[in-house]
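Methods — Computational structure assignment.
A single polypeptide chain was analysed. Its primary sequence is given first, followed by the predicted tertiary structure written as structure tokens.
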Amino acid sequence: MDDRAMESAAELFDGMGAEYERAFVKLPGQLAALDWLTGRLPAGARVLDVGSGTGRPVAETLVRAGYEVTGIDVSAAMVELARAQVPGARFEQQDVRDYRPPAGGFDAVCAFFPLLVMGRDEVGESLLRIADWLVPGGYFVMATVPADIADVEVEWMGRRVRVSSYSTDEYLRRLREDCGLEVLFHSTSTFQPESEIAGPEDHLFCYARRPAG
């Protein structure tokens, strides 16, 4: 029997640091999403990066595009690394489940894979919270591993974690019906991280918008 301890999200990413960046920094779907978003936001837009990790490539790309960027992450090690690598953004050790946004909200929110290592009800609640932080007309760009699972124990990059998610159809339904967002684009693909201890992953990318009216 494997007696390694199950890791929380904070413990998981505290232990990974730059290893995560090396494995995922060239993720095509993420780079395409950033290109799509930066083609729509005006200079000076306020953008929140949920699960900001090392700051690369998301916060770094957004800062270079001229946006006011805030990154939140549960990992103290990731926040420290991001502050060093992307000094033009603001990073806070915060959990999406209890984060309080500044007055005025955000013109866009990015959430690339931060909703996996939590309970399934918390995934849905986090989507509702994020949608509420968007200004009218604001954009939400997200990625996750789509699956109809709740609190399933898996091994990921040599570490044991408990994950939850929804199917692609259920994610789209929740974004449209529960969160009141307009889904502008979605796609699924398979990605092999640049790591010898990581297997291929199915990814869902979704771009959505809060109605302006």
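Note: The first helix runs from residue 9 to 14.
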